[in-house]
Amino acid sequence: MEETNQYLKQERSQPWREELRNSLKAKDRTSRERIKMPEQDPYVRNTNHSEVNNGLTADQAIHEASRCLDCVDPTCISGCPVNINIPKFIKYIEKKDFAGAARTLKETNALPAVCGRVCPQEVQCEQKCFYALKLKKEPVAIGHLERFAADSERESGKMYIPEPAKSNGIKVAVIGSGPAGLTVAGDMARLGYDVTIFEALHEPGGVLKYGIPEFRLPNTIVDIEIENLKKTGVKIFTNFIVGVTATIEQMKQQGYKAFFIGSGAGLPNFMNIPGENLAGIFSSNEYLTRINLMHASHSDYDTPVISGKHVAVIGGGNTAMDSVRTAKRLGADRAMIIYRRSMEEMPARIEEIKHAQEEGIEFMCLNNPVAYLGDDRGRVKTIRVQRMELGEPDSSGRRRPVAVEGSEYDIDADTVIVAVGVSPNPIIPAAIPDLETTKWKTIVVNPETMQTSRPEFFAGGDIVRGGATVILAMGDGRKAAAGMHQYLQNQ
User: Fold this and answer.
1) Three-state secondary-structure class, residue 229
2) Distance of alpha carbon 441 from alpha carbon 418, whole angstroms
3) Which residues face 382 on adjacent strands?
4) Is-above-0.85 flag for pTM?
């Protein structure tokens, strides 16, 4: 928090403010309506895997940027986990200098095209916008503008690659190529370190590749961001499981002086109810990985995936929305969300719920599975659910679901996808002796530096948080890079 406050104080006096300021009056700015993101028609998009959101045109982006009041106290920045200079990049858009906007984003954000698509801006930077805080109006569409700036730069063919510092020859290893790992790698490369990412899967990108469908985040966007990272000198080894392919000691012998653990939370949770081992029941991790990373939805690939006509997804988070909307695109006649709380308690992004509703997804709230029943071939055919009602708030602040006795009934389902949370990947912590973990098996870190109980190891993202957003993982990555740099310089 102190770092953010200091940053805000510095930004208030920066010369760019006078250079980019124009004469448009505050009254004119606040009278303008927020631009709506153009989208595919719901009943066209629910049959394809193309992006739902089409992106802003240049005119729309300039209009939206002109709403920004360039506040003396830019509270929007305090809502961004990676401290993007939001007023500055928006003013560049208003001045039609889209390349300048992209450069500004890349000062603190290694993945602007990704964040512009999947970050929950509505509860972060946009929630802290002056419009939302004081005027009680719709905030500036910061996320849409971030996406526009990044896409505009990419489409221009002139990508800005930050110049790294002179090499210091110090080798650091990044374990995992998800958003936290990519962020650490980018920041450390800029500081002159010799950075190598080790990825267990056959393609880099982590959850950006295996967990998020292409209709929300196209793989080509992730690939381009990773290629830009490589141009700064970062090396990436795939099919490499740290602790199995090579031990930590062997890596130290190869000269690695510090390590960042960003191996995520890829261990799916289940409900441990009868029938959960029937064929046709997937974890959301497996289902989405087969489709997003292994291309099971494309006829050119022979990756097996069962996709039935009556698909039920258990859960109410973003992963549940991704799973049920994917099932609809794969031909489900009935695609259902079964969630034990009400719509108001649902943790998924408002936009994702809206898109799912528009696409014909059925929401069965205040229901909870208690058993799965199978056919004579051992495949799921029925879900037995119990109605719920809401009691007092629990530790999450949401009202606790309470079972209604004697309310069980059956639903036909030939595919079930369980999206009730994940646990940390256990392989890496098990490979590092004396690494302190919590009872949930997440890694204990200093929250300011992301340093672990083993001084040469740093960690961030879901392996620390247990399951969070892309931008929070990136914020961890930025802190970890600063902490690792300080540690290595002190050595």
Assistant:
1) helix
2) 21
3) 373, 412
4) yes
pLDDT tops 60 at residue 61:
yes
- Record the tokens describing residue 55, joined without a space: 């992106």
Q: Which whole-number Å values give the CA distances from 123 to 140, 482, 491, in the listed order?
A: 13, 26, 39
Is the CATH code 2.130.10.10 the one for domain 2-156?
Answer: no
What Å distances lie between residue 428 and 115, 165, 198, CA to CA? 27, 30, 12
How far is CA 59 from each of CA 37, 116, 127, 131, 462, rounded to the nearest angstrom? Answer: 13, 18, 24, 21, 38
| H-only helix segments in 234-349 | 248-253, 284-288, 318-329
In one-letter notation, the amino acid at residue 146 is E
Structure token pair of residue 270: 């289940």
What are the boundaries of each domain within the chain? 2-156, 171-266+424-490, 269-422
* Nearest-angstrom CA–CA distance, 25 and 44: 41
CA angle at residue 20 from 14 to 23, to 5 degrees?
120
Cα 25 to Cα 22, 29, 51, 280, 345: the distances in Å are 9, 6, 36, 60, 40
Low-confidence winner among 171-180, 239-248, 423-432 (lowest mean pLDDT): 423-432
Mean pLDDT across the stretch 269-273? Answer: 96
Is 269-422 in CATH node 3.50.50.60? yes
Place of tokens 């000269």: 255
**Mean per-residue pLDDT over the chain, rounded:** 93
d(CA 27, CA 408): 57
CATH of domain 171-266+424-490: 3.50.50.60
Q: Is the pLDDT of residue 11 over 60?
A: no
Task: Grade residue 303 by pLDDT with cuts at 50, 70 and 90.
Answer: confident
